[in-house]
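Researcher: Let's do a round of design. I'm pasting the structure tokens now; please hold your answer until I've finished.
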């Protein structure tokens, strides 16, 4: 699945109760939770939509590096994404 599909998934059926904590395979055997993927490229629109969802696990960690979306955004220098996540009470420590 490609990242452009994230927008389609969000707009095709993501409501407040849709579980958005699924993972997307970004290359063979490498899976990222949707929020971490959005944070890695700094997609503020997708981050905003995900943060509005009641099921989102804002501190969910990527399985191999054990970092959350805030730290992924920091690693890639995505300041706006960091601000969005920090404002939503993501763990920044």
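Researcher: That's everything. Go ahead.
Model: Designed sequence:
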């Amino acid at each position: 699945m490609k990242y452009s599909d994230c927008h389609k998934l969000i707009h095709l059926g993501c409501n407040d109760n849709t579980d958005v904590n699924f993972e997307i395979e970004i290359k063979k055997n490498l899976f990222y939770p949707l929020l971490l993927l959005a944070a890695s490229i700094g997609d503020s629109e997708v981050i905003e939509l995900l943060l509005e969802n009641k099921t989102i696990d804002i501190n969910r960690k990527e399985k191999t590096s054990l970092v959350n979306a805030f730290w992924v955004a920091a690693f890639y220098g995505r300041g706006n994404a960091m601000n969005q996540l920090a404002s939503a009470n993501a763990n920044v420590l």
